[in-house]
Amino acid sequence: MTSWTGLVVIALLVFATMELVAWAAHKYIMHGFGWGWHKSHHEPHEGLFEKNDLYAVVFSILAIGLFILGNAGYPIAGAVAAGMTLYGFFYFVVHDGLVHQRWPFRHIPHKGYVKRLVQAHRMHHAVEGREGCVSFGFLYAPPVDKLSEELRAAGTVKAEQAARRAAGGARPRS
User: Fold this and answer.
1) Which residues lie below 8 Å from residue 50, measured CB to CB, with a gap of 6+?
2) 3-state class of 171 per DSSP?
3) Does residue 155 come out as left (phi exceeding 0), alpha (psi in the -120 to 50 range) or beta?
4) How far apart are CA 106 and CA 117, in angstroms?
5) Closest Cα partner for 98 from 74, 119, 82?
6) Burial of 83 per CB tally in 10 Å (0-12, 13-18, 19+)
7) Tens place of pLDDT for every residue, the chain, 174 residues?
8) How far apart are CA 9 and CA 22, in angstroms?
9) Cα–Cα distance, 51 to 45 (Å, whole number)
10) Helices and strands (H, E) in the chain, number of each type
11) 135 — alpha (psi -120 to 50), left (phi > 0) or beta?
């Protein structure tokens, strides 16, 4: 399994698996006990960075450690690090660049998979708090109709809108 072919296969499998890892981390850590960092991503902010970016630092440190192990004679660890890093690159381009336009990537998709991805993530941000959100993946988006139904069934958005009207406030942009 330490041939170039085997290592590339491992890296690609890790890349694919990272979407599941990211989904679980997003749903159960970022919207769970790690909300203190992730909350900044759901609120308006000034500047280039937000506290949520610390998650990228944590994953980067993990990948760097695996690259070091790979360089120390454990090539499979290096392949895992390569898969994680590739996923991180795609996350940066798609999530930070395309969806949130945090860098000069001013393309708004009007059809296909990428449009669905942007719509699904916007639906994720339709909920103000950490409860009642939908679509926790970053590179996979469930069908928008399914997400709309989940939001309607949960009633969270409607309840938040009613609470804002009662308080006389408007929802801040995220």
Assistant:
1) 40, 41
2) coil
3) left
4) 16
5) 119
6) buried
7) 689 999 999 999 999 999 999 999 999 999 999 999 999 999 888 888 999 999 999 999 999 999 999 999 999 999 999 999 999 999 998 888 888 887 776 778 889 988 999 899 988 988 877 888 899 998 998 999 999 888 888 887 777 777 778 887 655 555
8) 20
9) 10
10) 7, 0
11) left
Residue type, 156: T
Please give the structure tokens belonging to residue 99: 């969806």
Task: Choose among 46, 153, 50, 58: nearest CA to 96.
Answer: 50
For the chain, give percent helix, strand, coil, nearest 5: 70, 0, 30
Tokens at 167, concatenated: 């308080």
Distance CA 94, CA 8 (A): 23
**H or E segment and range at residue 125:** none
